[in-house]
């Protein structure tokens, strides 16, 4: 379940600056107004995303005293006129509420580029196909580390950082791409990225979010 008032749809982060203001403890404040995120995308796409407040998107399915389930964060930046947009998201994961331990996502991160009616997607799934060298897919997963877990009156404050790789792959592979992959069955990665026209990015980011403990189970 997505809580629209508290957790904006998956994909963005925000924090209304005032780190020690009354907003952190006011029962009338909307936690979404306090969130912030900073994302750096490098590689085939080079983009910086900075988002605050309502532009931060947080997904959450279950919130307990020890963990978050179906949790994800992301951010976006839109170009002038709104014709272009770049989104970055960690994907959903279970997150234990403990600081300074890197945790592995159950899904993969993504980057989506929109230009008018066209859209190009980068994902961990495609990274696995074209660039992964580990049979266990360690380079294709999203990783998140909480750096602070703190109770602030009726809110839970979480600060953290994340990293992941993502890749683009064509919807329809060429015959040459497929045949080369078959000829090298069992190889990691499965396909030749250059021959198949794949592209990759590296994503890293930091965030601060506030969760309303009224949702805690």
Describe the structure.
The chain has 217 residues and is mainly beta. The chain has one domain. It is built from three helices and 13 strands, in the order ββββββββββαββααβ. The strands form two sheets. Strands 3, 4, 5, 6, 7, 9 and 10 form a seven-stranded antiparallel β-sheet that branches. It has a five-stranded antiparallel β-sheet with strand order 1-13-12-11-8. The longest helix has 9 residues. The radius of gyration is 19 Å and the shape is globular. This is Lipoprotein.
Keywords:
217 residues, mainly beta, 7-stranded antiparallel sheet
Compact description:
With 217 residues, this protein is mainly beta. The chain contains 3 helices and 13 strands, in the order ββββββββββαββααβ.
Low-confidence stretches: 1-25
What's the β-strand tally?
13
Give the N-to-C terminal Cα separation.
14 Å
Portion of residues in helices? under 10%
Number of helices: 3
User: Mean pLDDT, rounded to whole units?
Assistant: 87
The arrangement of helices and strands along the chain is EEEEEEEEEEHEEHHE
Question: Which secondary-structure class do the elements indicate?
Answer: mainly beta
The biggest beta sheet reads: 7 strands, antiparallel
User: Approximately how much beta-strand content do the residues carry?
Assistant: 35-45%
Query: Radius of gyration in whole Å, from Cα?
Result: 19 Å
| Overall tally of domains | 1
User: Tell me, what's the shape?
Assistant: globular
């Amino acid at each position: 379940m997505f809580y629209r008032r508290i957790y904006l749809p998956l994909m963005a982060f925000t924090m209304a600056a005032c780190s020690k203001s009354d907003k952190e403890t006011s029962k009338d404040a909307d936690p979404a107004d306090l969130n912030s995120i900073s994302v750096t995308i490098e590689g085939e796409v080079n983009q910086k995303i900075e988002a605050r407040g309502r532009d931060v998107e947080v997904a959450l399915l279950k919130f307990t005293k020890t963990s978050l389930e179906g949790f994800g964060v992301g951010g976006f930046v839109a170009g002038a006129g709104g014709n272009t947009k770049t989104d970055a998201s960690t994907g959903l994961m279970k997150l234990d509420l403990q600081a300074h331990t890197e945790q592995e996502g159950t899904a993969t991160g993504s980057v989506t580029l929109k230009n008018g009616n066209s859209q190009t997607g980068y994902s961990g799934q495609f990274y696995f196909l074209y660039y992964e060298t580990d049979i266990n897919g360690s380079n294709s997963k999203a990783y998140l580390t909480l750096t602070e877990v703190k109770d602030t009156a009726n809110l839970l404050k979480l600060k953290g950082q994340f990293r992941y790789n993502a890749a683009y792959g064509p919807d329809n592979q060429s015959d040459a791409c497929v045949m080369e992959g078959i000829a090298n069955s069992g190889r990691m990665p499965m396909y030749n990225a250059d021959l198949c026209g794949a592209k990759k990015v590296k994503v890293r980011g930091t965030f601060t979010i506030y969760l309303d403990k009224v949702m805690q189970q």
